[in-house]
Amino acid sequence: MWDFVAVISFLAFIIAIIGTVVTAIKRRAFWKKWLAAAGVALVLFIVGAVNAPPSDNIQPPQTQTVAEGQEESTDITSKSNNNPSEQSLSSEAAGNEKVAQQATSGQLKAHFLDVGQGDSILIQFPNGQTMLIDAGSSEVGGYVISYLKKQGINKINYLVATHPHADHIGGMAAVVQTLAVERVYMPRVSHTTKSFENLLETIKAKGLKINKAEAGVSIINQDGIKASFIAPCGSGYDGLNNYSAVVRIQYGSTALLLTGDAESVSEQEMIASGANLKADVLKVGHHGSKSSTTQAFLSSVSPKYAVISCGAGNSYGHPHQEILDRLKEAGVQTYRTDAQGTVIITSDGKTLTIKTLGSTNKTRAPDNNTKSSTDTKSNTTDTKSNTNTNSNNNKTVSSEPPAAEPPADSAYIGNKNTKKFHSPTCSTLPAEKNRVYFQSKDEAAAAGYVPCKRCDP
Ligand SMILES: [Zn+2]
Ligand SMILES: [Zn+2]
């Protein structure tokens, strides 16, 4: 309505100006009336233009148009395309929209990385934030970094070290060194291994402080995402595994429960705490060991899907058949990183889709060929740390035996059962009793052994 008033009064203003000029030239007495009419029309036009809805066609007149009435029409067309403040404003708004759209893809993605025997879980939140829970052993630190970079990730908003065992935090120092990290969470328990001390030093050197991971601590509660710690509920546990930080992530009506290496003691405490344990996806505790995933806990979580993160042919016998049977009986669809490679679960807040990348031996760099120098460094310190733990007789001894150390003089390690031979740094080395050592590939081949596909010796 106001734009109509503006147009009409603008036309009236033009006519009145022309009338004023014409009558003034002809020296008629009533030219002042024309001028008054022009003034009224101008006022009406300004009122109309100010109240009119913003549009490209109508622009408020500039003051100089009063003096230069004859140039008004050209003036107005040029101005309609020349409103820099409004133009930049709208392009800025469009830019913001684009950024927001990139961040809110509306999907939460959980990647259970194929790191051999160990855990590493990457969560990409719909708001663009990221969480990394564990980073595998020191041998796979480089692989974890390259996987994250391949997803375009240079910053980890939330870094969680579930517990100080090397198969969870071994690769983390390299990750902290290479990528930007915002917040670090760890349970309050220490371990006297070099790999753990190395991680603490790296965190300190980066100027990061460690936030305590314990039951009840909220990590995220925004944009429809909730993430919090469900465990550890207590302290004074015999082994490190029950100190595991357990994370529950809720997005829309879907939820994930990521339990680290939490064992039955912690599982019982989680049930007793009354916390909501229900989840569509359960990251099975302790690589599918029978130390975890008690029937009571499984019933409380009642997952549709389970993910077991373990190395093919690992010396612990993970996952234990008992647990696989229990999951099957409960109707849980189970995925294994040793058999299917990296498992990616995507949630749109309602439904889940699951993708596996396949157990390709080239998914990650061969262990004996790690490119990152920091990784090689932590690798050597880690080997030392194993000896350390053994001789220290530490109070917090793990129930999980440290990875066996290959004798220095042997170049390759064979598995008597599978007749495969590995490089000494392979993450899937056989148990001590099943090992046979070779000085060369030829020697291994002569004995009827074939190279491991994972480490490609
Ligand atoms: Zn573990
Ligand atoms: Zn552990």
CATH fold naming of the largest domain:
Metallo-beta-lactamase, Chain A
* Termini Cα gap: 81 Å
Oligomer: single chain
Q: What is the second-level CATH architecture of the largest domain?
A: 4-Layer Sandwich
Alpha-carbon Rg, integer: 34 Å
Strand order of the main beta sheet, please? Answer: 6-5-4-3-2-1-14-15
**Which CATH first-tier class of the largest domain would you pick?**
Alpha Beta
* DSSP summary: helix tally: 15
Shape type: elongated
CATH superfamily membership of the largest domain = Ribonuclease Z/Hydroxyacylglutathione hydrolase-like
Helix content: 25-40%
Bound molecules: zinc ion
List unreliable stretches of 5+ residues: 53-104, 361-409
- Average residue pLDDT: 78
Please state the structural category: alpha/beta
Count of spatially separate domains: 3
Q: Tell me the number of strands.
A: 19
What portion of residues belong to β-strands? 15-25%
Q: Biggest β-sheet, characterized?
A: 8 strands, mixed
How would you explain this protein's 3D organization?
The N and C termini lie far apart (81 Å). The chain has three domains: 2-82, no CATH class; 104-367, Ribonuclease Z/Hydroxyacylglutathione hydrolase-like (Metallo-beta-lactamase, Chain A, 4-Layer Sandwich), CATH 3.60.15.10; 404-457, DNA Methylphosphotriester Repair Domain (3-Layer(aba) Sandwich). α1 runs antiparallel to α2, α6 (141-150) packs across α8 (172-178) and α8 packs parallel to α9 (194-205). It is α/β, with parallel strands linked by helices and 457 residues long. The chain contains 15 helices and 19 strands. The structure holds zinc ion (2 copies). One zinc ion binds next to loops.
